[in-house]
Design goal:
The structure is a homodimer of 296-residue chains. Chain A has helices spanning 6-18, 21-28, 32-46, 62-90, 99-116, 168-173, 195-201, 218-226, 236-244, 277-290, and strands at 51-54, 57-60, 93-97, 122-126, 140-145, 153-165, 187-190, 214-215, 231-235, 260-270. Chain A is α/β, with parallel strands linked by helices. Chain A has 2 domains: 6-90, Winged helix-like DNA-binding domain superfamily/Winged helix DNA-binding domain (Arc Repressor Mutant, subunit A, Orthogonal Bundle); 92-296, D-Maltodextrin-Binding Protein, domain 2. Chain A binds a DNA duplex (30 and 30 nucleotides) through helix 3.
DNA sequence: CCTAACTTGTGAGCCAGACTAACGACCCCA
DNA sequence: TGGGGTCGTTAGTCTGGCTCACAAGTTAGG
């Protein structure tokens, strides 16, 4: 059978709780007349009195009290559900990024991001393991890779370029003119990014004569290079800050490009079914605009 | 925080259940446009999508599904509460009466009652123990007594009168002219209504010379009298039908009144806080009209 | 006892919110 | 490729629930 209007039931609930139409009306931001009318109609519909007057108080009858209790429960359920949905949509927006990318590219732009994007609750999580968007409470991942992961949406921010970097004083101590000169200096290498990729592209087929340190962490490798230990093969996105701030320099950037495009890009990754989708898309658009020149 | 409009939430719930705005709209007896608008507004308010299109179906997102589940629960709670209230107010109206009164007075009027009072679900419960209006599921009790019980409302229907009755053939076999003659015939007695009450009022101070049968059940006593076993002391309300239908007669009704008013009346008893109050009052008014001449 | 400040009851009239209608776009299936 | 289904969106209508205003009853204090 048809349910009475919901507003009517909430009026009953508030009135039963307050034992007063007037106080219920104040809680509901209506006049006492509205509450009175609602309850009168409900009593007519149910065919029974729900309140009896006791002096200036309106006390619910047993029937009214029981019904009000049910309505209280239902309201709590609704409130819990809506709060949960609101939290899902309005809770913090978590971005997961590698420590290297966070340190090398992101942090220098965070201030402008905060200024230009209306996003009140952004959390940056720097972690080197690859976060799982479905289970780790992460809304956005900034990932290196081919840009094809199952079940997620991907926007490519930048195509990575590779070039050697070292500290300025290292460059003074070791005069490097052309790619071939690198074969005789300490080469810092990342386990996922062999020097041969770059040397081959530069037309150097020989193998380095010095076995340098190996790293699993790009940020640490660049830090080491900045301390004058050797030459590292850097990705454009990660070294940008160190270059700009002078901790690293590019050996023969003036004489030749010294860069080689690699297939891997830097991607902005999210789930299309995220409850925070609208906020994610605003952020994505900002990132795409920010990296507009880096995808050629 | 403020709850979204309830209609909006029910639209969400129905749409999630049907995986279709159109089917939801049909269930809610509105157009698909109404559902579409409601859900669009809710998505705006929560800041997240609640449905995604899949071909011709609208499937709820995880957030939409969870919220819909909560709304389903809340609706079930509301429905249960309202049904309970409706049942309390519209369930069967139970009248408890003694078997004697039911048989002797009530049954002959039930047909007219059914015709004249709009009461679709009346249950007559004949039981000799005194029903408890608060716990026995009884809405109305027809009780003999002083008419003062705690916590209940009372309307007095009739003032009882006492008079002797016997079967017509008994009267032929035992010529009874005056009250004193009863001292020599078998007197059937009810345990709660001694003959002395009536004899004393008639100016007869002697005790009956024959000890007759004793009864706890008035109806059984009158039945026994109707079979010619003896003379019973009857209450007006209970013997009326047997008198009218000729099974019992009043020995000296023609020569003298032969009646004596007793204090106990026959009352219509109910609880003022009954959820069925409106129906009870209609019935009370009918009973009062029916017994209008019996309270002098 | 009177008054002031409460309370609820009730009816007239107004307004926002929810609806319908109607059109367009898309999807699916025969 | 067309027909029957879906949803999106807008403009315009209507009605349920509101406010307002007044009446009447209750309480508490001087």
């Amino acid at each position: 059978m048809r349910l009475p209007p919901f507003l009517t039931l909430t009026a009953l609930e508030a009135a039963a709780r307050h034992r007063s139409y007037s106080r219920a009306a104040r809680e509901l931001f209506v006049t006492h007349g509205a509450v009175s009318q609602q309850i009168r109609k409900l009593e007519d519909e149910l065919g029974t009195k729900l309140f009896v007057r006791q002096g200036n108080a309106m006390v619910p009858t047993a029937t009214g009290q029981r019904l009000a209790g049910h309505v209280t429960d239902a309201l709590a359920t609704l409130r819990a559900g809506v709060d949960e949905a609101r939290l899902a949509a309005n809770g913090p927006l978590v971005i997961s990024s590698s420590a290297a990318f966070a340190r090398g590219w992101l942090v220098t732009r965070l201030e402008r991001l905060a200024r230009e994007v209306d996003e009140p609750d952004l959390i940056l999580r720097a972690e080197d393991r690859v976060a799982d968007l479905t289970t780790d409470g992460v809304d956005i991942a900034l990932r290196f890779g081919l840009g094809a992961w199952p079940g997620v949406e991907v926007a490519t921010l930048m195509i990575e370029r590779l070039f050697p970097v070292c500290s300025p004083d290292f460059l003074v101590r070791h005069p490097i003119r052309e790619p071939r000169d690198l074969l005789d200096v300490p080469l810092l290498r990342h386990v996922g990014l062999p020097w041969s990729m770059w040397l081959t592209a530069m037309g150097v087929d020989e193998v380095p004569r010095q076995q340098g340190l190996g790293f699993e962490d790009t940020a640490l490798m660049l830090d080491t290079a900045a301390h004058g230990v050797g030459v590292a093969l850097a990705r454009s996105g990660l070294a940008e800050r160190d270059l700009r701030e002078g901790r690293l320099v590019r050996p023969f950037a003036d004489t030749m490009g010294g860069e080689v495009a690699v297939e891997t890009g830097n991607h902005f990754v999210w789930r299309a079914d995220s409850p925070k989708l609208a906020r994610i898309l605003k952020l994505r658009d900002w990132f795409l605009a920010e990296t507009a020149g880096l995808r050629g």
